[in-house]
Amino acid sequence: MRPDDFIPTPVDWARRQAAFALPPGTCYLDGASDGPRLSGVQAAAHAAIEAEAAPWQLPHAALLERVEQTRRLAAGLLFGGDVDGLAMVPSAAYGLATAAHNLPLQRGAAVLVLADQFPSNLLVWQQRCAQVGARVIAARPASGQSLTDAVLARIQDTPRLAVVTLPHCHWHDGRLLDLDRIAPAAHAAGAALVLDLSQSLGVLPVALARWQPDFVISVGYKWLLGPKGLAWLWASPRWRREGVPIEHHWGARDPAQVWTFTSDALPPFMPGARRFDAGGIVDPLRLVMAAGGLAQLRHWGLSRVAGALGELTSALDAALDAHGLSAWKTPGHAPHITGLRVPADRLDAVAAAFAAQQVICIRRGSGLRLAPCLRVSVEQMVRVVEIAASA
Ligand SMILES: Cc1ncc(COP(=O)(O)O)c(C=O)c1O
Question: Do 80 and 176 sit in the same domain of this protein?
Fold first, then answer.
């Protein structure tokens, strides 16, 4: 068996709209909650469950090779081929807890987050700050101010800034942060940089060399089209050398492959960020789903995916302009996520009209989050605006 035989065959770009297992007649604009399931990944997942009836037919060594193959795929597609920098963990919260556990934080120091940041990248810092007597500072933009300017201002005016921990775009409405400006400012302030890219990895490129982050975290189930329960943690060279995991699973230790652990010696970690590999990730089901999503994205190309999603949200913005609803647009949104800023007195009606027409989206912040997938057409985006305008 070739090592990558387990990965489902990707679908060509021309057939992308048929690649998804979404029910017909739906307009799926909730890719920021759950990535749409690829049919090939769904079939491979069913096969993986079937195969569990005879687990001995998948030898442990072959399973470990699947782990490495999946890690290579993710590293090649998303992290410039830095295979040794990547660990597999069950959730973004787990990866962020690993970062919070390792980064130095003294009494009186500050951790900078975005206002209304996703809780997995907030709660752990609140807890850690409470433990050591540090404080969480939230960057909240003034009216008309960009998220980037709000963050830069807080970096400037916060003494003893120890950690800056941010996304690439806001999970409510896709407003972008300019990490090319924020990262150097964080470093100049002497702060560590942690990035939760759960809402952008797979669409927006990662610039490790320019940003020099300490840790980068992302779920695997939204824009990476993989399963829940398998998230990615990239660690900088320092932390893959010095970092300590929050659990001590045998899979992150070197002798695990021959299974010799003795009470008189603590075995060395596996190389690179594998020291942070969590228990439970050696799971044929999640591995095949993660690898299938990544292989599909590699086949399509990330810039082509971002371009196509950007055409969809641009079509939405243009249709809003055409209907005199420019105020409903979100300025500075990412290509793949935007927010429909429906006035409060019309929000219920618009949400109900969307539900009635099978436009799948969710309320976030004070509006509706629209995060299209590649099954959606430009015509559908225009139709979405017509439905909203007449609700
Ligand atoms: C920005 C962001 N981070 C993380 C997550 C998920 O985190 P976890 O894997 O801890 O549930 C989400 C889910 O919506 C998110 O939007």
Answer: yes
DSSP string, 102-161: HS---TT-EEEEETT--GGGTHHHHHHHHHHT-EEEEE-PPTT--HHHHHHHHHHH-TTE
Are the CB atoms for 38 and 292 separated by under 8 Å?
A: yes
Residue owning tokens 């810039």: 303
Element (H, E) at 370: strand 367-370
195 lines ligand 1 (CB under 6 A): no
Residue 25, domain member (yes or no) = no
Do 255 and 326 have their domain in common?
no
Decide which of 247, 272, 298 is a domain's last residue: 298
Final residue in a domain of this structure, among 280, 298, 316:
298
φ, ψ of residue 238 to 5 degrees: the values are -60, -50
Q: Is the CB of 171 under 6 A from ligand 1?
A: yes
Query: Span 91-109, mean pLDDT?
Result: 98
What confidence category does residue 4 fall into, taking pLDDT thresholds of 50, 70 and 90? Answer: low
pLDDT of residue 257 exceeding 90, the answer is no
Q: In what order do the strands lie in the sheet with 161-166?
A: 86-89, 231-235, 215-218, 192-196, 161-166, 110-114, 135-139
219 Cα: distance to centroid of ligand 1 (angstroms):
7
Does the Cβ of 283 fall within 6 Å of ligand 1? Answer: no
Name residues whose C-beta falls within 8 Å of residue 343's C-beta, 6 or more positions apart in sequence: none
CATH code assigned at 313: 3.90.1150.10
Question: Which domain range does residue 344 map to?
Answer: 302-389
Q: Do 271 and 367 reside in the same domain of the chain? A: no
Q: Among 30, 91, 117, 118, which residue has the most ligand 1 atoms within 8 Å of its CB, making it the best to mutate?
A: 118
Task: Report the percent of the chain where pLDDT is more than 70.
Answer: 98
Return phi, psi of residue 98, to 5°. Answer: -60, -45
Number of domains present in the structure of the chain: 2
Say if residue 2's pLDDT is above 70: no
Residue among 388, 384, 378 at smallest CA distance from 342: 388
| Burial per residue of 155-192, b for 16 or more beta-carbon CB atoms within 10 angstroms, e otherwise | beebeebbbbbbbbbbbbbbbbbebeebbebbbebebb
Burial class of residue 71, CB neighbours in 10 A (0-12, 13-18, 19+): buried
Do 311 and 251 fall into the same domain? Answer: no
Same domain, 92 and 241: yes
